[in-house]
Design goal:
The protein is of the alpha/beta class. Helices cover 39% and strands 15% of the residues. Helix 6 crosses helix 8.
Length: 319
């Protein structure tokens, strides 16, 4: 198996970029992987300080052989994150057939590349699987497994060219296509209202993003996304230094991310228990009203059975 290429997008955060590159270099498959770095350029009227940060970031990328090979594409003008990612991913994935994608604030665990490459190989011919993510919100779960759900996380992700070719950024078309029932499912049953809000903000021109449209593409094709039950990455950009990522303490990964994923789903279908955990976390994160859902009630019953009948249900796993 040939390691998939890694695409990294950087701009003007040398400190974040250094941590991202140092962690990537420690990955077990780093020296078998080609790294392509897309460095965005200065905005019109950028200050000398901003230009210095951009140059420092690029010098940092060139300073070491972080992976087997390192190729940098430096833009002379500012394209913005959305345009940079869409064009950069399309360029590399069209040539190589698949790709692993990072931004300059995603610190990876030691086995991140193992998981991404294993999953890319395992599910390359499974047309229902559209996306692989290394991120998982901090919920209680086992440490060596993975699961399918219909959401898309872009903090360390991968896909294939024959899925990415369907990507379309057309917010006005989505507004015409989505019904109220579709919007509810797109918002993870109301636990993530920001999903549809992002589409509307793009329509209004107040926001220019890309990830929500990749999610919409997957959603419209009934695609599945594979995720680890415990995160393999940390987002160090939740410090108000990024464009679209503010401070979110609840999403901070405090423990280890050096898990090796050895368990993959037996069936290509949504894991309702794990998906429900994600929705419960999103409700807390977004301040949504918490309701005792069917899955949540089932877990409460399991815990009660273990308490009342410890011998009979001693092997019953509850997460």
């Amino acid at each position: 198996m040939t390691a998939a290429p890694i695409i990294l997008f950087v701009y003007n955060r040398p400190d974040h970029t250094k941590k991202t590159l140092e962690a990537l270099a420690k990955n077990t498959l780093a020296q078998e992987s080609a790294l392509f770095v897309f460095a965005d350029g200065p905005k019109p009227g950028a200050s000398a300080e901003q230009i210095e940060k951009i140059n420092t970031t690029r010098s940092l990328v060139r300073s070491q052989k972080w992976c087997k090979t390192v190729t940098i594409f430096g833009s002379e003008e500012n394209r913005g994150l959305s345009a940079s990612i869409i064009s950069g991913v399309t360029r590399i994935i069209t040539e190589y057939g698949s790709a692993i994608v990072l931004e300059d604030d995603i610190v990876t665990g030691a086995h991140f590349l193992e998981f991404m490459n294993d999953a890319l190989e395992r599910y390359k011919d499974e047309k229902s699987v559209w996306h692989i993510t290394a991120w998982r919100d901090p919920v209680r779960a086992r440490k060596d497994a993975s699961f399918f759900y219909p959401n898309m996380d872009c903090w360390g992700w991968a896909t294939w060219s024959n899925r990415w070719q369907h990507f379309e950024k057309n917010p006005a078309k989505l507004v015409q296509t989505f019904t109220p029932e579709m919007i509810k499912r797109f918002n993870m049953d109301g636990s993530e209202p920001g999903n549809w809000w992002q589409v509307q903000e793009n329509v209004a021109g107040r926001m220019n993003t890309w990830a929500i449209f990749w999610l919409a593409t997957i959603f419209l094709h009934d695609g599945l996304c594979l995720a680890p039950t415990k995160s393999l990455v940390k987002n160090i950009g939740m410090d108000n230094s990024g464009v679209h990522c503010g401070e979110k303490k609840l999403q901070t990964i405090k423990g280890s991310i050096d898990w090796r994923i050895t368990r993959f789903p037996k069936k290509n279908e949504i894991d309702e228990d794990e998906y429900e955990k994600t929705k419960e976390f999103k409700r807390r994160l977004n301040g949504c009203k918490l309701t005792p859902t069917r899955t949540k009630i089932k877990r409460r019953i399991k815990r009660l059975l273990k308490t009342v009948f410890p011998n009979r249900f001693s092997k019953l796993k509850v997460y």
